[in-house]
């Protein structure tokens, strides 16, 4: 069911500073910021040869990233995103196996314009999992 790792997401308290660090210190290509109001975040992607690193900053007070940063003020790993061929088939298989899909279970449009769902971290050893249809 799982394809390749699409990206690893890091929550950061200051997106501009994190972007500059990846670009200027590590020499990486960094995308322009993109606001995702449906997800409550602003993101940039650090583009690597074999995957991406997504840097997340809260967008608004109700952002789930704001709550994450309250517990982890310096930031840290937020989730890992795996690619799947069929998001609905993957979701249905996971639900049938007892895994919990966050929200109402319906895919939302992610940062790449493709459908995504998130899986409860308690079902996957403390790691929030995002599935993205490719």
Description of the structure:
The protein has 134 residues and is of the alpha+beta class. The protein has one domain: 2,3-Dihydroxybiphenyl 1,2-Dioxygenase, domain 1 (Roll). 22% of the residues lie in helices and 36% in strands. It contains three helices and nine strands. The protein has helices at residues 15-25, 64-71, 87-96, and strands at residues 5-11, 29-30, 34-36, 41-47, 52-58, 76-84, 108-109, 115-119, 128-133. Strands 1, 2, 3, 4, 5, 6, 7, 8 and 9 form a nine-stranded mixed sheet that branches. The longest helix is centred in the N-terminal third of the chain and has 11 residues, at 15-25. The radius of gyration is 15 Å and the shape is globular. The model has no long low-confidence stretch (mean pLDDT 96).
Helix content: 10-25%
Mean pLDDT: 96
CATH C-level label:
Alpha Beta
- The name of the CATH architecture is Roll
Provide a concise account of the structure shown.
This protein has 134 residues and is α+β, with helices and mostly antiparallel strands.
Explain the layout of strands and helices.
Elements: E1 5-11, H1 15-25, E2 29-30, E3 34-36, E4 41-47, E5 52-58, H2 64-71, E6 76-84, H3 87-96, E7 108-109, E8 115-119, E9 128-133
Parallel strand pairs: 1-5, 6-9
Antiparallel strand pairs: 1-6, 2-4, 3-4, 4-5, 7-8, 8-9
């Amino acid at each position: 069911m799982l394809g390749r790792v699409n990206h690893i997401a890091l929550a950061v308290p200051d997106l501009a500073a994190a972007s500059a660090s990846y670009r200027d210190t590590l020499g990486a290509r960094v995308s322009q910021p993109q606001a995702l109001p449906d997800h409550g975040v602003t993101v940039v992607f650090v583009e690597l040869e074999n995957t991406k690193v997504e840097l997340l900053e809260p967008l608004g007070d109700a952002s789930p990233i704001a709550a994450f940063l309250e517990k982890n003020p310096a930031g840290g790993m937020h989730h890992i995103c795996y690619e799947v061929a069929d998001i609905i088939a993957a979701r249905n298989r996971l639900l049938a196996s007892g895994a919990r899909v966050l929200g109402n279970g319906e895919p939302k449009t992610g940062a790449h314009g493709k459908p995504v769902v998130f899986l409860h971290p308690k079902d996957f050893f403390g790691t929030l999992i995002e599935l993205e249809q490719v």
